[in-house]
Amino acid sequence: MSDLVLAFRQVRYTNKAFWRNPASAFFTFAFPLMFLVIFTSLFGGGTADVGTSQFSVSTLYVPGIAAFSVITACYTNIAISVSFSRDTGILKRIHGTPLPGWAYVLARVLHASVIAVILVAIVAAFGSAFYDVDIPTGVSLMRFVVILVVGAASFSAMGLAITTVIPNADSSPAIVNASILPLLFLSGVFIPITNSTPDWVDTVGKIFPIRPFVDAMYAGFLGTPFSWTDVLFVAAWGLAGLIVAARFFNWEPRK
């Protein structure tokens, strides 16, 4: 049996484990919709300019929360779940089986990416049903799918990379959330970036991959001018995360 077949089998096992924890599965899918409803209720009135086009703020929150869904499924969930698997000795036992390490990691990334795609589809359907958001088609849909796939893979790699600095499972939620939550606000996920936003916020947002990812998600979903530079920037961060994970990833609990 080839290693690739083993990897796809591991995807099935990972999926079973995910759904056997219904509370975790429920909140994974419920959180993005909760944030969408809360932020559109608080800030969804009025309109905002995106390039030369104008959209309602509630419409803008749909691709923003879709981006948040990808980051949650691929960065946050992978980083925390892998940290707990490492501390409980699961990774050590898996590493001692015939399953190659890369196949296990690939399975985790593929599963997270599938969950991210499902989440984005749910958020888009919710936005279409309740906020009259148009689902992208044609070239816009192709661009949206490309940034979705690149973003899912890249944030999964970064999730694996952050585990290299997490000392134990108990500290993983604090470290992961501290590394991502401030950037979510500084990158326009929850509060759109406008002309009145301080320059330092704009500068910090452009250094890290969330802002380009969100901008590309906006452009692909809304059909506004699309920058492939944003896609390449996100991919570069993903490649850096993959290199760090390959070099420093630890299969055994830390002493």
What's this entry about, in short?
This protein is 75% helix and 3% strand. With 255 residues, the chain is mainly α. A hairpin with a 2-residue loop joins strand 1 (47-50) and strand 2.
Taken as a percent bin, the fraction of beta residues is under 5%
Order of helix and strand elements from N to C terminus: HHEEHHHHHHHH
Query: How big is the Rg?
Result: 18 Å
Q: How is the main sheet built?
A: 2 strands, antiparallel
How many structural domains does the protein architecture include? 1
Shape designation: globular
Percent helix, as a range, is over 70%
Describe this structure as you would to a colleague.
The protein is mostly helical. It has one domain. Helix content is 75%, strand content 3%. The protein has a two-stranded antiparallel ribbon.
Essential attributes:
single chain; two-stranded antiparallel sheet; 10 helices; 2 strands; 75% helix; globular
Map the helices and strands:
Layout lengths: L2 H17 L2 H22 L3 E4 L2 E4 H31 L2 H6 L5 H31 L6 H25 L9 H15 L12 H9 L2 H13 L5 H21 L7
Antiparallel strand pairs: 1-2
